[in-house]
Amino acid sequence: MSENFINQKYIEDLLEEAKHADDALIGGALNKAERGETLEHREIAALMVNENPQHLERIFDIAGKIKRRIYGNRIVIFAPLYVSNFCVNRCAYCSFNHGHNFSRRKLTMDEVREEVKILEKMGHKRLALEAGENDAECSIDYILECIKTIYDMKFENGEIRRVNVNIAATTTENYRKLKAAGIGTYILFQETYHEPTYNSVHLAGPKKDFIWHLNAFDRAQDAGIDDVGGGVLFGLADPYFDVMGLLLHNEHLEKKYNVGFHTISVPRLCPAAGMNINDFPHLVDDETFAKIVAVIRIAVPFTGMILSTRETRDMRKKLLHAGISQVSAGSSTTVGGYSRRGSNEKISSQFMVNDDRDAVSIISELMDDGYIPSFCTACYRSGRTGDRFMSLAKSGQVGNVCLPNALMTLCEYSMDYGDITFREKAAVIIEKEIPHIASETIRKKTVENIEKIRNGAGRDFYV
Ligand code: SF4
Ligand code: SF4
């Protein structure tokens, strides 16, 4: 049964109280975070609302430490694949909204294959399939056909190994079909947890129903999809309210299904065709946004955090330190955008991309900055999803699988897609990181597998 587990008054009272939080409360919360203890709502609210530079410095420092302890220096890479921009909803912030007049399209299966070929050439193994909501033009059967088409494609260098899906809130029956199709994470942004704002920016269409949208993950979990990824669009409502909303949603899922969000995405409102960004009074500045990312990292240490190419290169760098663990690279937010890149054709994207470098440049720069780009998809393929994944993460053992998988997939990527300079750079990182694999057995196996990849004697290894 649908329910509203977002208590608006409770969040507003928390945020009001947080304005009067003293140094002892904030210092105590930071000490708890440093010891790896769970924070109370009032402590998280106080961390967010505070603007004391000394506390802020500690917030970033602790968020960075948590990130390094749990995720090391690995960054998982993915790319979005937009298959249809037909949409019956009127979301005031989105260029695909029904009221915006432009020539709409959905990809044919041949076009899906064309896009995937290009994404595979960029080295991607993990895609996020994106579509607007329109049952007539883009039915669940069409989405299922897209997923099958992608999984059926085989290339010399392997295949797309994980398709995450970001489509509109749907029925339990449709979620069952997505589960049967073998999707990775089901991603859906609540956009904002502040119901009055939600109602004011969702002008028409099924998405206008706040409760239907809010309970989508319950239906997905009931259908057996145990990896769900939440998010809000920062800039629609008070960002602190939305962080508390995200956390209440996560707790609701933990209580009911024993597992909360697998990932949290942190898109920030940016200009798009058919909307005027100045109509939105809650735009979030860079400093506040970085603080929010750091506080989320502290509040939910075991939840992956995803950043898109909405952010500039400099902001991405800053946010990677503050807690981001997954980024998109070489992205197009346009239906058919990968095959039409570079053409002069006028095509409509969902939002403006601020980091438009190609995938290999982004990945190479990540290595320059000391990160290990990872193309790992192992958990989903080994059935380590939902609470099985969370118990591995919380046991502290996840590094024993993530690190070797990151190194093996980076090696494979460097052999398949890198030039000599890229390969050398990757080899330096791999040699440096191998000793950090704690388990001797896994360490030895990783060394053997990396040799096999380099000699062309095997590929697609994971633990
Ligand atoms: Fe449609 Fe999604 Fe855009 Fe809303 S945000 S108009 S549902 S594509
Ligand atoms: Fe993600 Fe699992 Fe791979 Fe770690 S081992 S990067 S958690 S898929």
Could you walk me through the main structural features you see in this protein, from its secondary elements to its overall organization?
With 463 residues, the chain is α/β, with parallel strands linked by helices. The protein is built from 19 helices and nine strands. Helix 1 (8-18) crosses helix 3 and helix 4 (53-71) packs across helix 12 (286-299). The chain is globular, with a radius of gyration of 21 Å. One iron/sulfur cluster binds at residues 76, 374, 376-379, 398, 401-402, 405.
Total strands: the figure is 9
State the CATH superfamily name of the largest domain.
Answer: Aldolase class I
What general outline do the C-alpha atoms trace? globular
Kindly provide the radius of gyration, computed on alpha-carbon positions and rounded to a whole number of angstroms: 21 Å
pLDDT average, as an integer?
93
List the secondary-structure elements in sequence, H or E. HHHHEHEHEHEHHHEHEHEHEHEHHHHH
Helix content estimate: 40-55%
Per CATH, the architecture of the largest domain is Alpha-Beta Barrel
By secondary-structure content and strand pairing, the structural class works out as alpha/beta
* Residue fraction in strands: 5-15%
Domain module tally: 3
In DSSP terms, counting alpha (H) and pi (I) runs of 4 or more, how many helices? 19
Just give the CATH class of the largest domain.
Alpha Beta
Can you tell me the residue ranges where pLDDT is under 50 for at least 5 consecutive residues?
none
What ligands are attached or bound here? iron/sulfur cluster
Largest sheet: 9 strands, parallel
CATH topology of the largest domain: TIM Barrel
Terminus-to-terminus distance: 39 Å
